[in-house]
Amino acid sequence: MTFEPVKRKSIIVWLYTLKQWKQLRKYGSVHHISERLKYAIMYVNDSQLDETLSSLRKLNFVREVELSYRDDIDMTFKDAIADRIDPDLKPDKEEEEVSFDEFFKDLAHEIDPKEAKEKK
């Protein structure tokens, strides 16, 4: 016997009032409820999706029912930012260590080349 997950779809139910939100539980599992924006996110079995959508639209406290766009969104964000430096990426070459004397001489030369020559 193998386990096969039930295919489910996410739907967004916009409500006029939140007083009857518990009635939504008989149509599927309620995942999230927004009190401020008055909507609920539900998961419904894919095989019963059409029946559930039509019965939810008939309820008097439901403003609108729509399918979630989550399946349409590409969830691979690896190349979303072009110039991002990956923190897990190991550098190919290790940086050469520069002594402090050489660093300060180069810095002094960049700031004022005349003074750097006089101090040498």
UniProtKB/TrEMBL annotation:
The keyword Cell membrane does not apply. Its main location: cytoplasm. GO terms for cellular component: cytoplasm. Keywords: Cytoplasm. The keyword Zinc does not apply. Pfam families: DUF2129. It is found in: Cytoplasm. InterPro entries: DUF2129. Belongs to the UPF0298 family. This is UPF0298 protein SAMN05421791_10862. It comes from Facklamia miroungae.
